[in-house]
Records
---
Amino acid sequence: MFKPWVNPPTQLAPAPRGPVLRPRPLGDMDPILGQVGTLTPTQKAMLFVHGVILLGSAYHGYVRNENSILWGGSWAASALICPTVTTAFALSQGFGRPRKS
């Protein structure tokens, strides 16, 4: 008996349906908000501490270099990469004090 490789849709047979697509809420698509719900309290506390270090380093770089936004951003970027060393440098330079000329 002959069996065709493909079955073309005809008026006699309904066309095959694909999966039913449903709109997803933003919380399902956002990787950050989707992960925050699964963090432990300790992880949330460490994330908060890292954010405070990042903002403090940005402030220190901004004030130390005569209100330069570029330097504030570079200090924030360095705090994002290595927060402990950046904090140590900021404290050793006198946190939030302008550079002496």
Note: The two ends are 95 Å apart (CA to CA).
---
Amino acid sequence: MKHKIHAIILTLLCITTLFGCQKNNPSSQNTALTGEPPADNSIENTALPIYNAQNEEIGSIETYTPPLLVNNGILYAKGLEEHWISNYDAVEKLEYRLYNTATKEEHILGTIDDLSYDASYETTTVGDHLYMSVSTGSKSSENRKQKIYDVDLKNYGMSPIIEVESGLPYNSFTIADNTLYLAELLENGATDIIKYDLTERNETPVVHAYDEQSFFTKDSIRHISADGDHIYMIRLHKEDGDNISPDSLSPFDVPPAMDGTGATTNSDTDRHSLYMDTYDLDLKPLKTTNIGEICNLYEQDELSNENERRQWVSDFFVRDAYMVYHNFSSTTFLGTADDDKINRLMETDNDFNCVTDTARRGDDLFLRADCEYSENRPEKPQRNRFYLADPKTGAIKQAEFYADETKYVFRSASRNGNGKILLTMGFTPKLSDDEPLPDRLYLLDMNDLKFTPYSET
């Protein structure tokens, strides 16, 4: 376990469990091998048939990005072109669409011409509007912008409302009391909080200039979330003068240090702590909880635990009786964190994920997205399993779902406010002679799943 996650930048570029790498088309692979951009600017989309719980095909979409289920359909983007700024820096022209699953109509929402990163995991809805984060321009900070888009799901349109100059693609945002809060990480390691009032729309996007002189906290905010009453931030804090002793480390054990942008070096053994800060809706601090223990995985050494604390966070929220934490590496957590004491509600691993839900509700749905099919079912008892958790009590129920072809395993899922689930399933053989199977989408109703009390077996 000692050397397993030293390539932080790679884990940032690929969300391996929920969405996979954003760029998996042949032209990108060709560039990685030859160092030359492809001869044309084509993009490869994937045709995904849609099935119901009875394994009947009910529609299809052709998409370049992971599909997301919203109340009135499936949101996705179709790739149109790929433009190369340099041999190792490409931007894409994507056309965002909404597919109505009832009428099978497609509505074009808008086009982004120079997209470099699509943070599909960072979305939320308020009424008929969905807000999402994308980055445009070059990957270098001087030519990059993070943009928060307002997607009008009722009138079928989209436009940017905030543009953050030099903004990192991984800057997190949340919405509370009709205000959008975006945590902008600066190169000096500090974090600024950008506020945008959703009740006062501007005809043009608000441009936020990069400024290291003005910041909210000197530490790095890894993720920001909100419920109806509070705002929560995951904060990474460097401990003064507290280093991991290098005496027992080989040259291969030296951890990759992170500056404010997530860049790495090869000689830093600084120690960090991870906190969950609780604020009221006016950003008045109420409570700080040390949650670093959730990153102490298995029986790893302190170096590996330190590396886990430094990771960016793909999913985090607090809901009454529990909190959920999932970073871009190997740490997942479902449980409570009170008075610096960590209690797990159930054992989780990197195959355990929160089902993407743009609108929080009275319960939360999770899935175990095993990426490997096994004929020996007793040894893989949690394959294709859903978990339904009650945030009021912490009680958990479970259910399973299988396609007519039982080799299909869960890839990812999203849920809307109408009791529907959009499930991506596929099969990629591991160390066998089996042929891969094309991915499918399944549109399920919560009533299609038969939940029973959670059991470890």
Note: The longest helix spans residues 26-34.
---
Amino acid sequence: MNYEELFASAKTIEKDMSECMKTQQKLAKSILKSMETGDLKSWLRDVALLKRAGEEYAGILERMKDVAEGFDMRAYIESGDYSNQLLGWCEQFGIDVKGDFPAYEIFPYRVRIDAENQDIYVNRKKSQCLRPRVFAQNIKAAREKLMKASFNAAAFAEELADAYDTALIRQSGGKAYSKDADCYLTGIYPYLAPMSRHRREYDKQSYAFDLARLYSSGVEQLKDGRRLQFGPARNNSKAIRILDERGAEQFLATIRFYI
């Protein structure tokens, strides 16, 4: 199954629909003119033609309905055709994708396909676009827009450092601790977004995207003189996957701020 084939069939019918609508609009204007001028013969003739055009239009609508109903979207998704075509379009548009059906990461977005309900979600928000080609185009455009958005890397680094300091204090349990120790980035996030409503507005994907922009920004030092350093992890399950400014995959696990 292929949605592009369905789309091509529907476009042919849509062309007939548009032509029929133009004919109906033309006849409606002609009837109005005949009404205004008192041309009863033309009036009656065009009413008959409009009725015939209406019947033709109803037939076109039935054809359109049959085409739509004949495409089993659930089977299309469950068969794997949908995801294969989506991944194919993403590759064609140069979009980095990780994961397996039904969940994918298209940084900085998480995409989930719900075959049972024939829905697709982007960061838990249902998308109204299911056509693989257009969905891929939309994701690419949205990511490019995000990349162009203004971002104060230095200010984010300061906020991250404050959360880092808090995390080290809380993790120490009141005992002596190193103020420049490595701290997992995943452990810092709750201190940046401490309340559930904050986490809804600033989710983990947004956090990962900000980390990616900081990583690529070249900012290395805070106002207080401390420098920042990202670190990897032996186990990438504890790391946050990002794409750098070149689109290359990086795994950031820890950070430390030191003199």
Note: The longest strand covers residues 109-114.
